[in-house]
Amino acid sequence: MQERSQGDDAEHRTGSPDSDGSDGPGDDSVNPLIEDLLAGKHRALARVITKIENRQPGYRELVSQLHQHTGDASVVGVTGSPGSGKSTLVDKMAATYRERGETVGVIAIDPSSPFTGGAVLGDRIRMGSNVGDMDVFFRSMSARGSLGGLSTATTDAVKALDAFGKDRIIIETVGAGQNEIDIVKTADTVTVLVPPGSGDDVQMLKAGILEIGDVFVVNKADLDGANRTVQELREMLDYRDGGLPRTVGHHGADAAGDVHGEDDGTETAGWEPTIVETVADRGEGVEELLDVLADHRAYLDRSGEREKQRHARYAEEIRTLVREDVNELLAAEIEHRGGIDSFVKQVRERETDPYAVADDVVGPIEECVSERRE
């Protein structure tokens, strides 16, 4: 699938917004900014993502209008420990996709600045192989302290890239660790990078990353220790506690924990995670990696797992948005009643207790919800 049109905006590389950027009418008509995005104008895409990231007034209406135009792009999450070469590999992946005639959107989740809240790393230094290519849109986004370096804004930005018409969307996360499992909530395929000769990194995978990886990449495979790292990964993927064979990956087992299609040879057999060796700075192994990612996309469609993914993703997104909205509502109510400090003072003076405060604040909201339900 190609983009709807080829925009010629010079700002597509940085995603810098215009200063005016009004959200347009508040009715059911399509926002002019969304019309421009759907027409392939990179400036509009950049402005929409900026509004989404900064949670500017009207961003929710923009995302709502984008929703019906999504569902075509494939989303790959790339995670791994610092120094594993994520940025270099993502750069080469984007360049190789372009050689294949596919358009690419990249979201790099960077650590947050403690002063501005923005992304610490700049996006101009990260995608050297794709400078000047109008069909590669790159955007750094701040983690803003979100669990796993991913936030609701990231999910919404992916929707913008999808609606724009990008064939492949790559999300590069901050680093690897237990919190990084959040990538599974957004990506169709999770790729985990492991540098060679890093026994600690391989052991770290047992903490949770191993369970969500669909593809494992031993990058810098020309360095000493690469073969050993590949072997260690194979052993961890092939055996579970007690030496039982396993199928891992975030859709390798059903809700009960059973592997799909055991011994029946059906198309629903669980995906077996693949190990790929690359030397990203020289582009070696990148073609093979993209082929494996294509195999995984085919598996998702063939097995019906893609629909299960989307169901789970939308369910989690709804829960997250409801939690965020309720938290904001309750925070405003607490502030209206004098602020949290006034409640703390009453609790410290034994005039009330935390549970009673919570009941007092939530009670009226609960009553309203109950009345509407009836």
Overview of the molecule:
The chain is of the alpha/beta class and 374 residues long. It has two domains: 67-305, Rossmann fold (3-Layer(aba) Sandwich), CATH 3.40.50; 316-373, no CATH class. It has twelve helices and seven strands. It has helices at 32-38, 42-54, 59-67, 86-99, 152-164, 199-204, 209-212, 226-238, 286-303, 305-336, 340-348, 354-373; strands at 74-80, 104-110, 136-142, 168-172, 189-194, 215-218, 274-277. The protein has a seven-stranded parallel sheet with strand order 3-2-4-1-5-6-7, sandwiched between helices. Helix 8 (226-238) links the parallel strand 6 (215-218) and strand 7 (274-277). The longest helix has 32 residues, at 305-336. The protein is globular and about 65 Å long.
